[in-house]
Description:
Elements: H1 4-18, E1 28-30, E2 39-41, H2 43-51, H3 55-65, E3 72-78, E4 82-87, H4 89-101, E5 115-119, H5 134-149, E6 153-157, H6 165-177, H7 200-216, H8 218-232, H9 236-259, H10 276-286, E7 290-293, E8 296-299, E9 313-316, H11 324-339, E10 343-349, H12 353-365, E11 374-380, E12 383-384, H13 401-420, H14 427-444, E13 452-453, H15 456-459, H16 467-486, H17 502-512, H18 514-523, H19 527-547, H20 556-580
Parallel strand pairs: 5-6, 5-10, 10-11, 12-13
Antiparallel strand pairs: 1-2, 2-4, 3-4, 7-8, 8-9
Helix pairs in contact: 1-3, 2-3, 4-17, 6-7, 6-8, 7-8, 8-9, 11-12, 13-14, 16-19, 16-20, 17-19, 18-19, 19-20
Bound molecules: arginine.
Amino acid sequence: MKKLLEMLSAELSGAFEKAGYDGSYGRAVPSNRPDLCEFQCNGAMAAKKVYKKAPVEIAKDVAAKLSDSAVFSRAEAVMPGFLNLDLREAFLTDYLTQMAEDEELSVEKAKEPRTLIVDYGGPNVAKPLHVGHLRAAIIGECLKRLGRRLGDHVIGDVHLGDWGLQIGLIITELKKRKPDLVYFDPDYEGDYPEEAPFTLADLEEIYPAASARSKEDEAYREEALQATVELQQKRRGYYALWQQIMRLSVADLKENYRKLDVTFDLWKGEADVQDLIPVMVDQMKKDGFAYEDQGAWIVDVAEETDKKEVPPCMLLKSDGASLYTTTDLATIMDREQKYHPDEILYVVDKRQDMHFIQVFRCARKTGLVPDTTDLYFLGFGTMNGKDGTPFKTREGGVMRLEVLIEDIKNEMYKKIVENRGTRDEDAENTAAIVGLSAIKYGDLSNQATKDYVFDVERFTSFEGNTGPYILYTIVRIRSILSRFEEAGGDPSSCRIGKAASPDEKKLMLQAARYNEALSSAYAEKAPHRICSYIYELANDFNSFYHEHRILAEEDAEQQASWIALLVLVRRILLDAIDVLGFSAPERM
Ligand code: ARG
């Protein structure tokens, strides 16, 4: 079904035309004075110049044509030329009834679905996930789900960091520690052992040790760089070690993402495009884009209008190794060949801004993608602690993601037990569900591009603009509906009636905006808009609930209408949190 505002605008356009003005002035917007009216139209103000007439006169002409409108119960011209508008009860009731009857809640699906690849997550193998990876996972997952909800064909790709210096460092350190391992014997031709010569815990200790040493020891660093090149050339023993690293690490990553309710369609990584790199670089050389500079191969991407320096894109270093930029370019080529995406959306830390400027320019310049393919970098801000610096453990170290999830769950557990007054069995489970909502909503309710403060106390609160508050509202509605059922009622046979109070109408109007809320969030790649929408919806529901004694209502028809509205509001909230990436417990 069409969005509410579109329907109102269509009605207004008709009235403008009937009054002799251009229909395009008839655009409805939500009222910026909700105390005066529900919607407004500012078109007469804009039409003033063209018709050389006082705007209020134009507005009066239009209002006259709306006197018997089926949509507006009131259309009033006010100084200096606005139209103040209220909806007819029957129109709103119809709109909501159609929503309630539609499995999709009247959310419009794309008429021509686009293919979108969302590149998010971006973990690096052999390194544990830490809080710095949280935003990529949460925001990317939400945009993927949102795109699907609106009918696009969305492919989520984790894009593992699995082919760079970090692997060279691990190989080098391992070689120092266990030089006799068969993986290091260049003459060995047999099969390599099935069992890895390290555990995941070993890897997590080896990498930081190697990284620290490479910063102090130049020769060691050289060795690691050399190992990286040889790995990229698929030296047998190194490649086998790499496969072992991948096996352990990817299983662990999958488990961690599962805890976050984040899933990827593709588990591809930098290494997957290794074979495309020579082809791509050769083409760029042949086309005259890539040139040699002190042994390295580079492409210029600076533009005259640049305000800050945009360094050239380096494809191959002088030792022949490929870089982060190279694999990203080859990945674009691969994605183009396999999926012909209309858009590739990268959800990555905004500090990688320059990297993506270079990659996108190079991809455009060299024709890796057609001009019609959008390359979009959604750079997100940092998740900070209360002190305004990146979130850390109490001891000041990097916080692992699983530790954060566990901490929040424990915090939630305390609150739930306190709330219930008992420690029943499912409290643990509920704490995990609600805890995830606290983390995800806390993140998503902030504008993605900005830094934000991860405030455990606030995010886990049952009150205010938080995930637990939204879930609490859903659970509250559910409990009203169950009590209605226990008393013999059947919510599914209830129909929405006319609003009986201003609070009810406010709730109805807000429910009717769902379609619009999702599509504007998608158009702006702004999950926080969905959060603001459901926060308002939850608030409107709670005000309504406090003003009406739903279960004690004696007029059966009135009660049924309220129950039907509750069913609808609950469905909207559940649908929206699913898009945000979390779910609701049975009770809290
Ligand atoms: N692994 C990278 C990092 O940790 C993020 C990858 C983002 N995606 C991409 N296509 N570059 O910085």
